[in-house]
Amino acid sequence: MKKGNVRCIFSILVCLLLGAKVYHMHAHQHDYSKEIETLLSRMTLEEKIGQMNQVNFDSLSDELLQQVENGEIGSFLNVTDPKVINILQKAAEKSKHKIPLIIARDVIHGYKTIFPVPLGQAASFEPAIAETGARIAAVEASEHGIKWTFAPMIDIARDARWGRIAESLGEDPFLSSLMGEAMVKGFQGRDLTAPTAIAACAKHFVGYGAAEGGRDYNSTSITPYALRNTYLVPFQKAIDAGVLTVMTSFNDNDGIPSSGNKYLLKEILRKEMRFSGLIVSDWNSVGEMITHGFAVDGKDAARLAASAGLNMEMNTGLYVKYLKRLVEEGRISISDIDASVRYILNVKFCLGLFDNRYLNISKESAIYSEKHLQAAREAAVKSAILLKNDNHTLPLREIRKIAIIGPMADAPYDQLGTWVFDGEPEHTVTPIGALRDYTEYKDIQFVYEPILRKSTDNDTVNFRKIRQTVETADAAIVFLGEESRLSGEAHSLSDINLIGYQSDLLREVKKVGKPVVTVIMAGRPLTIERDLPYTDALLYCFHPGTMGGPAIWDLLFGRANPSGKLPVTFVREVGQIPLYYNHNNTGRPAPDHAKTLYDKSGEKQSSVGDVSFYLDSGKEPLFPFGYGLSYSEFKYSGLSLSSKKIGMKGSLVISVTLKNTGNMDGTEVVQLYVRDRVGSIIRPVKELKGVQRVNLKAGESKVVRFVLSPDDLSFYGMDMIRKPEPGYYTVWVGGSSNTDLQETFLLE
Ligand code: NOJ
What we know:
By secondary structure, the chain is of the alpha/beta class. Among the domains are: 373-556, Rossmann fold; 634-747, Immunoglobulin-like (Sandwich). Helices cover 26% and strands 19% of the residues. The strands form eight sheets. It has a six-stranded mixed β-sheet with strand order 13-18-17-16-14-15, with helices on both faces. A five-stranded parallel β-sheet has the order 6-5-4-3-12. A five-stranded mixed β-sheet has the order 20-28-27-22-23. The radius of gyration is 27 Å and the shape is globular. Residues 106, 150, 203, 282-283, 489 line the site of 1-deoxynojirimycin.
């Protein structure tokens, strides 16, 4: 059965009311309904339930192979040995219906060749970076038999305490959608039946990033408006891009855990959002409904999840244990079971697994190919954000000798960041490794003295070596940040200053009097306001991956020009969280001088005329969303609109002239923001609606155009229907969310 170039996410929707089967197909998708129905009609209830069971692979045993042969397991996660996978697939082929297994793994930002953490990739504002990264991850992972990854994570993340912000694509629905969609395309490729295609998984459905207090797994309360206007936006984009699977989240929202939330899965995900792929639970999230206090016991948890429409259960085995009995007792309908099995079989058909389940082990490996490494280097270059560059400290010129200091200068595991099950530190090129081994940097003289070996080192004995290390050099490059274990799942922090003695280290280095350049590698936006005065330049790299070292030198030495922009707001103080650019306006927004109100002495306590801000840290973040410097300077002028009025069927062309007034060629991420002045519900003060990376030679200028349609302005208003509302809008174009070059138009 050859499926050719078929891009197949196909839709199966069980029409619940009629109990009938309705298949929704895109024109270009292959319809496997016949094959699926034939199989389904022959399967026993036990075999159906077996397909709904995803098991964590531990080790091969006769008992396990027997279970596979009996059709009790539909999927494994965490097996990466191709030989073992072939043995397991052989056992599946011996089962009555020969249904192949689907092998899953968390391949989040690379399999072996590790790209920057997703938050870093988002900083490139370039979907092609994310798509290429995901494609390369799929090529490498599929070589070892992985056909399903649990990525992209498209949870909106507005709290830097939350360790998984590293795995997110930032705070903004538009940017997360853009990058998430690109990742889906990258993982799944153009032809799902190709050996290198792997199923993507949009996760976590839903609201996981809104955990109260940034504490992982914590409860969320998301209003129906915020759900649809913010949290669901990237999921809809992923669905429209054909994502084959969705994972439910650990958290409860308003008291209902996602894995047992029938309304969320059946009404919103299936009906409103028209998702027709497979819904998988998170690890133990079905069993954890007992701990939440939502399910009485394992049987109750299985019942709640299955009737909510959760198709495959990860790890606890509760489906296998209880679903049969629940069906016999009439507490779970067979149509729910059949619907789940259809979704699961469909993914297996789409991926061509029925025809091609075995791996060709002897084939040449693409892992760590030069092409992959170069792509990872380019991604790391484009993901780094220049936050400070006083007196043109960077790029480093006429510098003969540098002093390298700090715990992240040679931390091969830690610069890979969170979620690198398969990344290998021995393949990482650290900044020190690049200077030692890369020919292009062989002329650079350097001394290396970490002073602190780990960010968490709690003694300062080596501080006495700082002066002698820095004194003989022309500049000090200080590598600070967080080791990878300080961000990621279950790694939330309540203090997000530079950990340990790192700030003290920076101050001591500065005292020597040489130019100081700081490079921070971290999984989250840290609170670094207090550190800024002690560095002349600051390059921020969300953990940059395998090729972080050479990428950083490319930037510091000016072989490349920084172009990354912040995908998240940098707060001044942890107490400002959550602070994000696209917030609603209060009735008392703070004026620009709000911070100075704090300094007025002798005033009486009063609330009249007061505004929304913090007395101690004001209303502004340290760095706004979309911010990032370049070695070039970009000047925006001549913002103009094709019309001052558009109708509901019209569209608007927005043009601006961008000039590189610096003396280096560079790239600017041009950003388009919009504000709907008055809405049936309050609209955000600014919303990103377009981005373009524009390359400009020194001195060159270009006209940059965006097209905006009423659909781009749509949102769920008071009546909960997605549509644009007539009225006045402001548009801004600029190099960050803080731009003030603006125009107004009317939508009629
Ligand atoms: C738990 C995480 O929340 C999820 O993102 C991941 O895919 C699963 N574990 C499987 O490892």
